[in-house]
């Protein structure tokens, strides 16, 4: 993957398992966002392919509709909270009654029930982030790509979102890829971890493995916070 | 009579004319709104089509069209008036329309004048929609068509502002309609001032002729109406800009 002649990601080859929480960690500017954008077809890699469920992808739209990507800084439509969250259902042509039920469910999960009619542009930073989270899970994606989902939240909301992530995985068996540089968060919720360093995946390991006996010395340095970045 | 008295008398008489709903003044106001309103409606349809095509479609000559629109945004009204006049005179290419000194000619001139303005502002507001909004549509499973619809919706307040800016410009413009419309009123004085009811006389063209005739109170009355209209349009435009 490259932007112009700047190579951003190279030699990435690994599997994410169904129903796991896979944390992608690494210093700032290392390519985490770019990687998630490739998975969601927003960027096109120069070489390589992605297989979903071991099949060649049946088409961008169909594959994309089975997943969702939560941006690091969510873009918010100039509409009500309800309309924002309902968007993914509406483009799928879901019936009105079901849309209402699903949106209310999603808003309940993120603790924004009762704010349906507020213009979403007037939400606080934390509320906006939670609304974007609701918008991303409302249509039950099989794969949920989360880019720093708790970066702008206070500790109470961080805990809440982390609980939601675990709950969704447990209840819906959603596969979750979580990009973050929050190492304590990885300890709390990840099943497996990949460390991305300067565009290269230096290690993929179970959470216990990576924290107790990392395979790469650079992983250890990064996890201990010794990495200079 | 001192100059202050003269002015105060003029203003008092102007308000009398307005509040007595003087038919001459009313007919002029009516022509102004009808001509500029029709031109704005026609220009809006054209502008939205153009802005849509330029923003979302690829075709040959697109860059040339954009350049034409940008140039058109700054056209001097008298130039547009002269151009339209040369088109519609009996020997001109549009002479068969037989519309010299009619409201239709005025509508045509203002249409040419404000279509680039409305298009230009529409284009800018579509362009101002962040890429991340379009990406969000795709991420949530929207199609290319959904992305276009969402972009237009996000740009809606900017487009309303564009339409109002076009209408305001048309209302305030004098050069083009003076040339192609001729500032004509029917004969036979009504309500004791001016000539007859307006045929192609608008607020702006009437102000020029009444002032040069020396009928200051009529000019002031017309000026008050004009400025109130333009101000209301601007307040409305401001409101939509803030809603954005
Ligand atoms: N559109 C682009 N054009 C050029 N360079 C880009 C573009 N997008 C990203 N990059 C570069 O690619 C590299 C990886 O960026 P990316 O956003 O993936 O990092 P990240 O790991 O998500 O960082 P952070 O933790 O700060 O969010 C960076 O050096 C960035 O400057
Ligand atoms: Mg990032």
From TrEMBL, chain B:
Question: Which GO CC terms are listed, alphabetically?
Answer: plasma membrane
Q: Which residues cross the membrane?
A: 38-59, 79-101, 108-126, 220-240
| Matching InterPro entries | ABC_perm_TupB-like (IPR049783), MetI-like (IPR000515), MetI-like_sf (IPR035906)
One Pfam family this chain carries? BPD_transp_1
Q: Does the keyword Disulfide bond apply?
A: no
Q: How does it sit in the membrane?
A: Multi-pass membrane protein
Please state every residue range assigned to the domain named ABC transmembrane type-1: 29-237
Cellular localisation: Cell membrane; Membrane
Give the keywords, sorted.
Answer: Membrane, Transmembrane, Transmembrane helix, Transport
Q: Which GO terms describe its biological process?
A: transmembrane transport
Please verify whether the record's keywords include Coiled coil.
Answer: no
Gene3D superfamilies named in the record: MetI-like (1.10.3720.10)
Q: Tell me which domain of life the UniProt entry assigns to the organism this sequence originates from.
A: Archaea
Q: What family does the entry list? A: Belongs to the binding-protein-dependent transport system permease family.
Q: What protein name applies here?
A: Tungsten transporter, permease
> What species is this protein from?
Candidatus Methanoperedens nitratireducens
